[in-house]
Amino acid sequence: GGPTLWTASRTMVSGDADGTVAFNISFSDVTGNAGTAVTATTDASSVAFDKTAPVISPATIASNNISNNQQAVSGNIITLSFTSSESLLATPSVTINGGGSGTVTVTNVGGNNWTATKTVTECSNEVVTFSINVSDLAGNTTTRTTTTDASSITILPNTFTGTGNWSNNANWSCGAAPGNNFTGTVAIADGANVTLDVNIAI
Which of 42, 58, 96, 158 is deepest in the core (most CB within 10 A)? Predict the structure, then answer.
């Protein structure tokens, strides 16, 4: 008789549909008797074809700044929160740019929900940018660089260095900020009249 052990293989292509791969084995014995077609495995194994990249949504960003969670100064923690539409192959790769070169810590907070945190170490006076890179179990990848709710973080300068309105962010550089106690020094021109409260919290 003929051989009894066989394998069949096929390379999946982009036109194939997502989902469990179907098969059909038709055969006959050496005398021409047709066997019953086989459409399921004997051990319940299966293969799923996945060509769809994961979706990252929602994605939001905030800080623990006591005055405005869309701003940050040195010492504040920036938290990027996001959710993947499916299970991931590995911990997401996340960069958070701005506020110094602090370490970004990525944490799974349950299911497909994640956070990435970074402590601000520099008063860099810039808008924070970020990149979230993920891969699903099939190896499909996605990168996200924007939030889904238009949230953003601005790194502020944070010590009062001029004259004028204490609550005006333009008058601050590294040291304290509106919402933080003033701990720096103020340069006063000769003859200027200034009233200071050095324990303010605006």
Answer: 158
User: What are 19's strand-pairing partners?
Assistant: 49
Residue 183 scores a pLDDT above 50 = no
Give the span between the Cα atoms of 152 and 143, in whole angstroms: 17
- Asked if the model's pLDDT at residue 197 lies above 90, the reply is no
Q: In the Cβ-directed half-sphere of 140, how many Cα atoms lie within 13 Å? A: 16
By DSSP bridging, strand 126-127 and strand 154-155 are antiparallel
pLDDT at 172 exceeding the cut of 90: no
Structural tokens at position 122: 């520099």
- Residue 131 has a pLDDT of 98
Structure tokens at 72: 């940050």
What whole-number distance in Å separates Cα of residue 68 and Cα of residue 78?
12
Q: How confident is the model at residue 110 (pLDDT cuts 50, 70, 90)?
A: very high
Scanning the structure block, which residue is given the tokens 């038709």? 26
Please state whether beta strands 105-110 and 93-97 pair in parallel, antiparallel, or not at all (unpaired): unpaired
Of 25-34, 87-96, 139-148, give the lowest mean pLDDT range: 25-34
Residues in the chain: 202
In our burial notation (b when 16+ CB lie closer than 10 A, e otherwise), range 54-79 reads: bebeebebbbebebbbebbbbebebb
Using an 8 Å Cβ cutoff, are 50 and 139 in contact? no
State how far Cα 39 lies from the chain centre: 41
What distance lies between CA 159 and its chain's CA centroid? 31
